Amino acid sequence: MGYKVSYEQADKIFEKLSETYEIWAPKRFKGKGRYSQTDLIRYDRVCRAEDIEYREKSDMPAKEVLSPITQSLFYFTEDEYIESKATSKKLLIFMRPCDIHAQHHQERIYLGNGGFEDLYYKRMNEKVKIVMMECTEGWDTCFCVSMGTNKADGYAAAVRFGDGELLFDVEDQDLAPYFEKMEENGFKPDYIEENEISLTVPEIPDKDVLTKLKSHPMWQEYNGRCISCGACTVACSTCTCFTTTDIIYNENSNVGERKRTTASCQVEGFDQMAGGMAFRHTAGDRMRYKVLHKFHDYKARFKDYHMCVGCGRCIDRCPEFISIVATVNKMAKAIDEITGTES
Ligand code: SF4
Ligand code: SF4
């Protein structure tokens, strides 16, 4: 059922929802951006509809709500441990269609990869209801249409933000009572049909081509360009890698807490194993690994979609202006060169 509500009415709905739900959405943090006098848009709890930054794409993705950049997993004392507490409320998260697709990738890895279920992710994930933010224009780094992530269904509600009013499509019956007595409306969300940039992901026909592609000179360009900061993966909607650290409180090494922190395959040392062995020694090696993971390996393993959802955040965040779209296009050219299909 569709509804039209004013911002004042939306605030009252939010107030009522807040008794049961934590409401998370992109929010603007003034002056907190990377450069002087720039803002940061990232996920945070909101109380009012006006708090939601819908005019611009968030710098950081929705994954931050369920898997924050750093979190305490459990606390230990001698031979006992206590799990950290999760919120007792349900979670209502506002996100765009590409972010919804990205959440499905996150779920697959955290809840099924290697036959293992991450309980810290699961206990948050099972509380989630999604409010899809209509997205019809995108930005100059988006390529969701190419990746097939411009449309999403299965949301609890969808919303269109207007200047003086909001339109909601409420699908989840648990949310319907909050909209009782609001003006009914036939609203259904629209979707973007064409981005400013597009991408055709090249097929890698066989293992021989893949092996040759791995040693293609195109990757070496990144040795002089990528600074291995990992910003692209931290901002990536679909990256899930993390590392764990034990924080010891005092001289007794048996008392402390285990934290998990986002990790990046782009940072030197990520692949180092016990004994000091590592596999990817240069920025180019690491770039190759990331790009093939997003645009080949993941799909080859799970047999359905590529991992990248085309949100473009890695392009926005890279201090060296490295574009994943340009990189994949270069990779396509390299494959043509290897297979002798260059035009
Ligand atoms: S690789 Fe880049 S465009 Fe693709 S999902 Fe990650 S941040 Fe978005
Ligand atoms: S591609 Fe850009 S953001 Fe990613 S590690 Fe390299 S320099 Fe940093």
Describe the protein in words:
The chain is built from ten helices and twelve strands. By secondary structure, the protein is an alpha+beta fold. The protein folds into two domains: 2-66 and 86-185, no CATH class; 207-239 and 265-339, no CATH class. It has an eight-stranded mixed β-sheet. It has a four-stranded antiparallel β-sheet with strand order 5-4-12-11, with no helix packed on it. A hairpin with a 3-residue loop joins strand 8 and strand 9 (165-170). Helix 6 (207-214) crosses helix 10. The protein starts with a strand and ends with a helix. The site of one iron/sulfur cluster has 13 residues, from helix 7. Keywords: Iron, Iron-sulfur, Metal-binding. GO terms for molecular function: iron-sulfur cluster binding; metal ion binding. This is Anaerobic sulfite reductase subunit AsrA. It comes from Enterocloster asparagiformis. Residues 215-247, 298-327 form the 4Fe-4S ferredoxin-type domain.
The portion of residues assigned to helices is 25-40%
**Which value, in Å, is the CA radius of gyration?**
22 Å
Q: What is the residue-mean pLDDT, rounded to a whole number?
A: 96
> Would you identify the regions where 5 or more consecutive residues have pLDDT less than 50?
none
Number of self-contained structural domains: 2
Largest sheet: 8 strands, mixed
Topology as H/E string?
EHEEHEEEHHEHEEEHHEEHHH
Protein name: Anaerobic sulfite reductase subunit AsrA
GO molecular function: iron-sulfur cluster binding; metal ion binding
Keywords: Iron, Iron-sulfur, Metal-binding
Domain 4Fe-4S ferredoxin-type: 215-247, 298-327
